[in-house]
Amino acid sequence: MIRVIIERRCYPDRCTEMEQLLMELRTKATQHHGYISGETLHSIDDPSLWLVISTWVDIDSWKAWENSPERHEISQRIAPFLTSPEKAAVFGFSRRGVTMSAHVVDK
Fold first, then answer.
1. Considering 10, 17, 20, 104, which has the largest number of Cβ atoms within 10 A of its Cβ?
2. What CATH code is carried by the domain that includes residue 65?
3. CA angle in degrees (0–180, nearest 5) for 72-78-79
């Protein structure tokens, strides 16, 4: 099992539109093989900062979703609202001190 944390920074006047697209993105992700759960967090201290945290069965399931046409299309619609490219980090769960998977992807 892996967890993906995606950081996005949004222009303040575009956050409502981005939030709607993030909900659309999650709805599509829930239909994708290997998706377990997800949540969207909006920073109280920094209104431009949004985190999306999702849990996947394995890295292959995440990669399939990450590279899917559905995700790509919605990500293209989100891009104009961002002040900088999204940052994604993939984490594995430790087992006896050994992390199964962890890497960072800058887009």
1. 10
2. 3.30.70.100
3. 85
